[in-house]
Batch of 2 targets.
Target 1
Amino acid sequence: MKSKPHIAVVGAGAFGGWTALHLLERGARVTLLDAWGPGSSRASSGGETRVIRGTYGPDQPYTHLAARALKLWQKYDRRWKRQFLHRTGVLWMASGHDDAFERGSPEMLRAAKINFQELSTPQMKKRWPQIHFEGIQWGIFEPECGYLDARASCQTVVEAFVAAGGKYRQLAVLVEDLENAPLPSLALSDGSQLKADSYIFACGPWLGKLFPESIGDLLQPSKQDVFFFGTPGGG
């Protein structure tokens, strides 16, 4: 009887956690590693929420990926009896002088079968009077999209992975010898070694640190501002 392949997945964020879970569900033996834990504040998958939308312009694969993600979240929300996808709707607003990105999106949305509406500024003003639409000429509204609970969903994916028989270790992978092929094993921060048949690195912006020669500065994480809004206390 052929033994199950052993796969090590480094990084327990959105990509790493789901990769590990799907590999496990398909019969592999999987070890998942993360230096700080799923959905940590150091990860690009961290934070409270992430918008999930289909409007991504004309030349990209993301609209079809978003459509598939919407179906998968519906499936796993039912399985786990928790709601991570909140279908609040997403409104994308476009100015009239530079809207090539938005003009190229409806065709992609139709092809991916994501429900959307093209709205004029008067229509948006009537529907959302709380928004200031100065400089906005039209918009795209996706009623079935919304936001995901980012940190909580990453943590739940890893919990489901462990419950299904996967092995999770909160340890860092050391940089030494990672770029020397073939890779015999991973050196871990507790002094141990992890040997697997295959290695998958899903480390997002940290890949340049792990592979300074192959990747280095080729990955440049963009600055992302986080805003918190709330009503006055005591109301």
Note: The chain has a mean pLDDT of 93.
Target 2
Amino acid sequence: MDPLKKVFAAVEAALEKKAYNLIVVEVEHLSSIADYFLIVTGRSDVQVQAIARGIEERMDRENAYPISIEGFHHARWIVLDYDDVVMHVFFEPAREFYRLERTWTDGREIPLPEPLRSQVRDLQLRASG
């Protein structure tokens, strides 16, 4: 599966679980770790686990399987490594603490296609409202 299609499928899965502050960062030109990072936030450890599980289930349906999954039991920061796409699912306080986006400031945020972009914006507005 193409890395961009993989990350968009993961975005859809995360949005189904009401993830917010969702961004996709292209890091291919910065590191050999991955082509893209998906970074999302959940409001509780239960939601963080649900988001990660939803992504994993969607990737299974797409015949994409993780190299590793870390942090599931503590659910503060779950990392799902799909080789060329790494998904970071944060509990809100952990995301604020680690500020992963700032670590990868030279990464390029990928604009999402519609209707994903509108869904991200709507969840963002609900989270701040």
Note: The CA atoms of residues 20 and 41 lie 5 Å apart.
